[in-house]
């Protein structure tokens, strides 16, 4: 039995054997542990990272701890739409299937900065990165039976002003992050309604996890840094934080389950704006406008 099987009903190590899984932001934190968990279950894992050296270091670590050699690094800067399209083209050239896409990469910024396309960076990486990457890989996902999309959201959710999604009028790093995480949930619900039955999409809150995410968090940098240093001892480890992602990516308990927001292994209630069909539709249209793509499903 594999070391993960005690957590959930995952069964034997081979449960993901031969399945192709992409995990974004997998050189550190929750993403690295998600990739390690899927490799331990026998999957072919693609570490999608913006820094190749960090990716290669994570790859070595994952191969040596799992014994699974089928781990590859692919470079993609999720803040750049050009880079996302280039990465997806490279993937589609070589691979005809994609069993699991884990949209995990995320950031918090202290100040309002812009992506290469001139879009507010947190919205660009945390929401449009998930939206565009999923779109670009959708044909291989749909060609694969029982494929799964997993979006790493958060319990930090704040309502989105749909007339100012890039927070041009008022910027707070913490709020903008929470808006982007609500956008992950709204994207999940809207996409689930469009996908055929044999492809599922779910999202999750991983818990409060001790990772690099907080390095730019306005609450925890600066004078409050010593407080954070103490507080983080009470956070989950990245391995514990990865459990929900691994569960949604691999467990037979959730096969066929789609359009849910999970906290732990249970579907949960999300922010009220996520249940507003008009708001979801508007966010979808804005996302298509800002990325220049149409889903066509
Ligand atoms: N930690 C928590 O308590 C918590 C709670 C709720 C939700 N989450 C969510 O969990 C996910 C993972 O975060 P984490 O806590 O594991 O943080 P983390 O350790 O900082 O990991 C974030 C990952 O995203 C990558 N990334 C950032 N910007 C990128 C870009 N432009 N292109 C490609 N990759 C990029 C980072 O790469 P670099 O190493 O190159 O920066 C890193 O690998 C995020 O979506 C976050 O919102 C975390």
Can you walk through the features of this model?
The structure is a single chain. With 297 residues, the chain is α/β, with parallel strands linked by helices. It has a single domain (17-208, 239-289), classed as Rossmann fold. Strand 1 (20-24), helix 1 (29-40) and strand 2 (44-49) form a beta-alpha-beta unit. Residues 5-11 have low confidence and may be disordered. The N and C termini lie far apart (40 Å). Helix content is 40%, strand content 13%. An eight-stranded mixed sheet has the order 3-2-1-4-5-6-7-8, with helices on both faces.
Number of strand segments = 8
Q: Biggest sheet, strands in spatial order?
A: 3-2-1-4-5-6-7-8
Helix content: 40-55%
Q: What is the average per-residue confidence, as pLDDT, rounded to a whole number?
A: 93
Principal-axes shape call: globular
What is the total number of structural domains? 1
Name the CATH architecture. 3-Layer(aba) Sandwich
- So, the CATH homologous superfamily? NAD(P)-binding Rossmann-like Domain
Overall SS class: alpha/beta
What top-tier CATH class fits best?
A: Alpha Beta
DSSP helical segment count: 9
Bound molecules: NADP nicotinamide-adenine-dinucleotide phosphate
Radius of gyration from the alpha-carbon trace, in angstroms: 18 Å
């Amino acid at each position: 039995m594999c070391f993960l099987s005690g957590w959930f009903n995952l069964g034997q190590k081979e449960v993901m054997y031969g399945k192709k899984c992409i995990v974004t932001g997998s050189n550190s934190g929750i993403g690295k542990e998600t990739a390690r968990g899927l490799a331990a279950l026998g999957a072919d894992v693609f570490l999608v990272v913006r820094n190749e050296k960090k990716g290669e270091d994570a790859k070595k670590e994952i191969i040596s701890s799992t014994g699974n050699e089928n781990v590859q690094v692919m470079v993609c800067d999720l803040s750049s739409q050009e880079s996302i399209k280039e990465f997806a083209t490279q993937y589609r050239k070589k691979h005809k299937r994609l069993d699991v896409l884990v949209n995990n990469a995320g950031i918090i910024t202290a100040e309002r900065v812009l992506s290469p396309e001139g879009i507010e960076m947190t919205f660009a990486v945390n929401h449009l990165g998930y939206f565009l990457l999923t779109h670009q890989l959708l044909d291989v996902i749909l060609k694969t039976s029982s494929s799964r999309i997993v979006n790493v959201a958060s319990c930090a959710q704040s309502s989105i002003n749909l007339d100012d999604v890039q927070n041009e009028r008022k910027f707070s790093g913490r709020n903008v992050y929470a808006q982007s995480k609500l956008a992950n949930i709204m994207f999940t619900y809207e996409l689930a309604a469009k996908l055929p039955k044999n492809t599922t999409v779910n999202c999750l809150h991983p818990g409060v996890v001790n990772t690099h995410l907080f390095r730019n968090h306005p609450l925890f940098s600066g004078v409050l840094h010593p407080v954070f240093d103490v507080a983080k001892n009470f956070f989950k480890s990245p391995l514990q934080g990865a459990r929900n992602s691994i569960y949604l990516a691999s467990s037979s308990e959730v096969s066929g389950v789609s359009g849910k927001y999970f906290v732990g292994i249970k579907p949960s209630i999300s922010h009220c704006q996520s249940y507003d069909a008009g708001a979801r539709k508007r966010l979808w249209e804005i996302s298509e406008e800002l990325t220049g793509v149409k889903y066509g499903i």
